[in-house]
Amino acid sequence: MFRIPAAIIAVVLAAVALWWLSRGILPPQTVRFAAGIENGGYWQIAERYQDILARDGIDLKLIPTAGSVENARLMTQGKADAALLQGGVPVGGGVETLGAVFTEPLLIFARSSGGATVSNNPAMWSGLRIAAGAPGSGTRAAVKALLKAAGVTGANTLLPLDGTAASAALADGPADVAVFMAPLSAPYLKPIVSDKSVRLVPLAHIVALSRRVPQSVIVNVPSGAFSLNPPLPADDRQLLGLLARMVAQPDMHPAIVDRLVNAAQLVHQSGDMITPAGQFPTMAHTSLPQNAYARDLIADGPSALSAFLPYWVVAQISRFAILLLPIVFLLLPLLRALPGLYQWSIRNRVFRHYARIREIDEAAAETDNPDTLHALESELAELDREIAGLKLPLPYRGYAYDARLHIDLLRKRIANRAA
């Protein structure tokens, strides 16, 4: 009968075990990323993330969507591993944030002459045709949030137009207002910004609006932010802005979290025209459960081990540290109490006999019967042998010696009474 050598079996079992363990240690090579409208602002940022992750052999597969609302839906359904989400767009499924990564200004443009006059107070808007982004886009969600915050009662028509189509609709007449949620560098903004018949609407009561629109901030746009020759805008403006967040599934591999946060730092830490350097990424104002590893990376920076170990090894070490830290805090009081508990357990092996020694002492004091006294003396002799047979550590042998001395004194007293 053919027998497989034991060495071969051991090698095979070791290989299987190593493969099984590596499934949880090594990161996946492909990550699905919901990136918004193809060639839009989110898409262009996601492409920069894609290039950075490719350096570590990770394929960031970009999923084109209608915008933040569809991104959130894909995340809730588990059809995307990570995504960019506009501030204020809700998402379920336990999705966690990896941090806010940039501020999106809410850019509202209206014709400065001809057509409907657009008030700076959105509460006065009524009967307007607003190019408000496609259904499922973050722009449309932001427009609805703004109208709700302003308490608009009049009917307005939300046109499913965004990007270049929205700019053209405002220039050609089908739209009275065009709203964009986009970085100032978005290419489709250039023609509308340079059009002298179009104005950037400065919202009235912007502080009150910012406190009513979820996850909004006030953005300072300096003069010349779009262009310096001529300077556009001509003077400083305050606009509403929403914080864009990077989100991930709650079970995302920590090494992928590490690489995504690293990409966000490389892309966004330098700041832009409306954001000072070093502000992003941040965990402030994210309104979602925070990924613990991403939170520590943003707060403390990369581990010192990163200089010596691969990123995926460091990520696993950091993950275990995060998990073990609460356990250590719980065990620390117990660890401090262990020496005392050990000493008590050793002493108790001797001291538990003292209860019976005391009973014998009291019984001997209450009787003069020789037979009873001899029986008590015999019991003391048995206790003495039992204590002498205890295996105690050397530092604790003194407890046994003291107990045997007490027994010896009591035996002598009982012998004298019996005589």
Show the helix and strand layout.
Blueprint: H1 6-25, E1 30-34, H2 41-54, E2 59-63, H3 68-76, E3 82-85, E4 96-111, E5 129-131, H4 138-150, E6 157-159, H5 163-172, E7 177-181, H6 190-194, E8 198-200, H7 206-212, E9 216-221, E10 227-228, E11 231-232, E12 237-248, H8 254-268, H9 292-300, H10 311-351, H11 354-365, H12 370-388, H13 397-418
Model description:
47% of the residues lie in helices and 16% in strands. The chain folds into 2 domains: 25-301, Periplasmic binding protein-like II (D-Maltodextrin-Binding Protein, domain 2); 352-418. Strands 1, 2, 3, 4, 5, 6, 7, 8, 9 and 12 form a 10-stranded mixed sheet that branches. The longest helix has 41 residues, at 311-351. The model is unreliable at 16-23 (pLDDT under 50). The protein is built from 13 helices and 12 strands. It has 419 residues and is of the alpha/beta class. Helix 4 links the parallel strand 5 (129-131) and strand 6.
Q: What is the fold-level CATH name, i.e. the topology of the largest domain?
A: D-Maltodextrin-Binding Protein, domain 2
What is the fourth-level CATH superfamily of the largest domain? Periplasmic binding protein-like II
User: How many H/I helices?
Assistant: 13
Largest sheet: 10 strands, mixed
Estimated share of beta-strand residues: 15-25%
Q: What shape does the CA trace take?
A: rod-shaped
Any idea how many domains? 2
**CATH class category of the largest domain:** Alpha Beta
**Overall average pLDDT:** 85
Radius of gyration: 38 Å
Span between N and C termini? 84 Å
Q: In total, how many beta strands?
A: 12
Q: What is the SS-derived class?
A: alpha/beta
Low-confidence stretches: 16-23
